[in-house]
Amino acid sequence: MKTASGILRSAAATALVVVLPAMASAQQACTTYTVKDGDTLGSIAQAAYGSYDYQMIFNANRDALASNPNTLPAGLQLILPCEDGRLTADSELSAIIQQETAEQEANRSNTNIYEPPLKFVTSNDWMPFTDESLTGGGIFVRMATTAMQRGGNDRTYEVSYVDDWMSHIDVLLPTGAFDVSVAWEAPDCSKLDLLGEFSVRMCTEFDFSLPIYETAYSFNTLVDSPYAAAREFGDYSGARICRPEAWPISDLEIQGLVEPLVSYVQPKSPMECAQMLLDGEVDLYSIESETGSANFEELGASERVAPNPALATFVTYHFITAKSNPRGRVYIAMLNRGITDMRESGEWYDIVATGLAEFNALSQ
């Protein structure tokens, strides 16, 4: 899920411009908002939630926004979820999960005892996405196990936690010790000539499921850093950029941010990157918005950090199998059926919203 020099569990990254326009007109959470000329997801989120973090708006409007989150046409209707993630004030979190689970139990046939359990591997300490302390192991683990019971699937499975992401890629999937790793970013494999060694390897040695989550990667600097004023990726020339080992850099590679134009520092954990930024050891810390915000809150340093309002990249996460696994594509097809079923029923959003709500409660 993460990587190092060539390092990337990488990402289908699209430069996401969140320029600050004149403030979007007043709006409130728990409503539907009609986009006006000059609005961006960042400005809408700021008006509704007091923060430029628009991930929750994107989650609730994925079908309308996934093709081009950079451009919001005037007149587009956007759901602005309640602050706890509910789509409307009178809806209930987890209601769809409960309904889908009840229907699955009612229609369950006997599991095929001749099929061995599908073996998932993931890692701890990536909240709210994967961690044994969270309900169901976190958002991505819940998506994986739920997908195995949706879309006509009825396969048993096992989930293990191996807290070394690179071992998933280097050993565990290629040797068949595990079938599926949860979860990794997909490089833009149509641009192999722009990608580093690790990203190319991900494209050529692994198969990816449909996207299970899309997120913006924010670019964080100290508030007094000259890089805080960057408005084009080229403005980061000379920067020391921190991404944890096994997190992607392919989104930056396709923007031309390659060595020696910039230099990369890749410690084991996100928190190390956050601390290095605060200590002045790096100029820039770029990671998914949820993780970055949580890191700085935990360190009590949110006011010292400035997320760039004009630059972000867009990353998709996936389940992956090794191409060397003779059953790998069968497993991907099974997971894709479940993912599609979850998207269509609304259960996908329910898993995301309940997972984020749990994480936010733990963070308070």
Describe the structure.
It is globular, with a radius of gyration of 20 Å. The protein has 364 residues and is α/β, with parallel strands linked by helices. The protein starts with 30 loop residues before the first strand and ends with a helix. Strands 3, 4, 5, 6, 7, 8, 9, 10, 11 and 12 form a 10-stranded mixed sheet that branches. A two-stranded antiparallel sheet has the order 1-2. The longest helix has 18 residues, at 328-345. Helix 5 (139-147) packs across helix 11 (328-345). Helix 8 links the parallel strand 8 and strand 9. The protein contains 12 helices and 12 strands. The chain folds into 3 domains: 31-80, LysM domain (Membrane-bound Lytic Murein Transglycosylase D, Chain A, Roll), CATH 3.10.350.10; 117-210 and 321-363, Periplasmic binding protein-like II (D-Maltodextrin-Binding Protein, domain 2, 3-Layer(aba) Sandwich); 214-315, D-Maltodextrin-Binding Protein, domain 2 (3-Layer(aba) Sandwich).
Output the keywords.
single chain; 364 residues; alpha/beta; Membrane-bound Lytic Murein Transglycosylase D, Chain A; D-Maltodextrin-Binding Protein, domain 2; ten-stranded mixed sheet; 12 helices; 12 strands; 32% helix
Question: Could you name the CATH homologous superfamily of the largest domain?
Answer: Periplasmic binding protein-like II
Number of domains: 3
Q: So what's the overall shape?
A: globular
Count the strands?
A: 12
CATH class of the largest domain: Alpha Beta
Number of helices: 12
Q: Mind telling me the C-alpha Rg?
A: 20 Å
| Secondary-structure content class | alpha/beta
Quaternary state of this entry equals single chain
CATH architecture of the largest domain: 3-Layer(aba) Sandwich
Q: Could you state the order of secondary-structure elements as H and E?
A: EHHHEHEHEHEHEEEHEHEHEEHH
